Amino acid sequence: MHISEGVLSGPVLLGGAALTVAGTAIGLKKIDYDELMSVAILSAAFFVASLIHVPIGPANGHLILGGLLGVILGWGAFPSILVALTLQAVLFQFGGLTVLGLNCFTMAAPAVICFYLFRPMLAKGTGSKFIAAFSCGFLAMLLSTVLTASALALSGDAFVNAAKVLFYAHLPIMVVEGVITGFAYGFLAKVKPEVLAA
C-alpha cells in the first residue's frame, strides 16, 4: 500500500509526516526496554510480508499485518513500521523517502486503533479469539486502505478514480489479512503467550 513519490500534494505529505512524527514520539515513549525484541521481530515480519506486493495504479497492494502489530505493540507500531518502511524505501525503492511519513501513518494509525478496540477483547478471552483476531486484521487493512485512498483523493481530482480502484482491489486482501492475523494470533497464544500479555 505504498504510495509512490511524486503523486501526493505538498499539504498531504506534510500532514502525514507530522502525524507520523507525533505517533513515533508517543510510540518510543511507550516502548519498554523488555519489548524491544518483540518490536524488532514484528518490524521484520512487516518488512517481509509487505515485500510481496502487487502494483495497483499509483500504489501497491500487499499484506501489512497491521492488526497483529497493533494488538501486540500498541503505539510501538509507529516506530516498528517506520523502520521497516525506511529500509524498504532505501533498499528496494518501495514508496520513497518523501512519502515515508504518510505511508507510515496510513499503516500505523489503524494498528493503534485496533489495539484499543481489540486488545481488551482478546485479553479477556471472551468469545472466539480467532474471530476477534480476524476482525482486527480485517479492520486494520480496511482503515489503511481508506486512509491511503483518502490521501490520493485529497491530492487532486485526477486521483479519485485511482483511489476507488485501490479500495476495491484491496477487498480480497482484507480477508486474507484477517485470516492470517487470526491464525498468527492463535499460534502466538499457544507457543508464546507472554508476548501477547506484555
Strand content: under 5%
Main structural class: mainly alpha
Radius of gyration using CA atoms only: 16 Å
Strand order of the largest sheet: 1-2
**Whole-number mean pLDDT:** 84
Tally the helices: what do you get? 9
Q: Which ranges are low-confidence, i.e. pLDDT below 50, for 5 or more consecutive residues?
A: none
Tally the structural domains. Answer: 1
Let me know the largest β-sheet: 2 strands, antiparallel
Q: Find the CATH topology.
A: Arp2/3 complex 21 kDa subunit ARPC3
One letter per element, helices H and strands E, the order comes to: HHEEHHHHHHH
Task: Characterize the overall form.
Answer: globular
Q: In total, how many beta strands?
A: 2
**What is the class in the CATH system?**
Mainly Alpha
- Which CATH architecture? Orthogonal Bundle
